[in-house]
Amino acid sequence: MTTEAETPRLTMSNIVKRFPGTVASDGAELSVRRGEVHCLLGENGAGKSTLMKILAGSYQPDEGEILLDGQRVVLNSPQAGLAAGIAVIYQELDLVPDLSVAQNLLLGHAPATGPIVRKQKRLELARAAITRVGGDFPVTATVRDLPIAAQQLTAIAKALTSDARVIVMDEPSATLGENDLLKVFEVIRSLVAEGRSIIYISHRMDEVMEIGDRATVLRDGRTVGVYDVARTGPEQLVAAMIGQERELVQSTERPRPEGEVLLEVERVRIPGVIDIAGIDVRAGEIVGLAGLGGAGRTTLLKSLFGDIKAARTVRLDGASLRVASPAAAVRAGLALVPESRKEQGLMLGLSVARNAAVTALGRPPWLLPRRIGKARTAPVLDDLGVRFASPDQPVGKLSGGNQQKVVLAKWITRGGVRVLLLDEPTRGLDVGAKADLYRQVRQLADDGVAVLLASSELNELTANADTIWVLHEGRNVAHFDPRTTPETTIAHTVITGVTP
């Protein structure tokens, strides 16, 4: 007979979640004990985020079941997850920036007498929660005004106020310094001593070995192993994450570019965020940027494009490149396809033609003459294979793949692009749309454009890049020739920051 202490706190069995064109979770399993720090490991795209969003109630599984303390639960909304005693601290913090720390901590369950919030009591409870996580900032402060480390501690304290049985921490160290992380580890140890269960997601093996009791490794949406951390070395965990079935990557069909160096990134530095130096891109070359989430790829591309302030020493065709804004970068011949096409790359309510012509005609898109916009963009949209009912169709009505092609089309339509910066260009695209996009990128490179390509999909980088740089914790730590380097070697460096 199973005693209460032996019953797992959490059991997720045969979890399947399908999205159009992909299976994000393919029968994944997760079992977490009471009073345990259980590490959830896997490469980018392994299925960790999907599994945790299902646990939080943000996604509903297509198959499988979830048990909490032996009882089956249906978590059909984030509110249901919270009510069941599950708190998730996402890497992108789930805080309301314009509210105070105290308001955030007790949002939805503030102490009250009837409809009136007892503000003094709320302040007392908030101070106790912040003190417990080692914070020394006022709970009356607006979250937006706090340093990112203080915001992270606030998110952890918020989970404590909900009396959660299971607390998920998604990459908590990504924004914390060493001292703050030590505080978090102390909090974690006190929580498990109370019998709470922690699911700790991290790519940093030193943290896993320090704080973890057991670890579940996911790969391609499946659970590939459960390990006792004390009896397992970090190399074994990394090997499980990478898998041993990968073979030497096949050589790209493109001849190696021999053009002159066009873009020289001598150094781009933001203190405490990135310090990247010595990346060169030749005319006609595709240089890949590999790295885990938070490694600095997006920050580097935005810095080069003038969208983030940084100390930059960059040369374009031998001359110093000074870009104080994205507009200056565009004038210099740089183009950026951003990570979020819907938020940064497109104006979803405007037509396909207006979006594709906006950079070419240099005026507000609502002032673009329809006839000129259509004539200018038609051949580019046709060459990219963009599928739409009409050039006047709102771009927001297109599929994700076609939207991404329109983002690329606006730069091709403009012409004069010398350096193309691509940030996760195939995210959310199906296989056919990915192939179409990379075909066009290779064509641009063949025409002499220097391409800097950031992607979490290592197999896409090895198939399309001429050189791959690995970024790790804000620094570029190694570069590889994908024609001759095993993908496992690159993947190992992505995870650990060290070349095996």
TrEMBL record:
The keyword Repeat applies. Transmembrane segments: none annotated. GO terms for molecular function: ATP binding; ATP hydrolysis activity. This is ABC transporter ATP-binding protein. SUPFAM superfamilies: P-loop containing nucleoside triphosphate hydrolases. The keyword ATP-binding applies. Pfam families: ABC_tran. It comes from Nocardiopsis ansamitocini. Residues 10-245, 249-498 form the ABC transporter domain. InterPro entries: AAA+_ATPase, ABC_carbohydrate_import_ATPase, ABC_transporter-like_ATP-bd, ABC_transporter-like_CS, P-loop_NTPase. PROSITE patterns: ABC_TRANSPORTER_1, ABC_TRANSPORTER_2. Keywords: ATP-binding, Nucleotide-binding, Repeat, Transport.
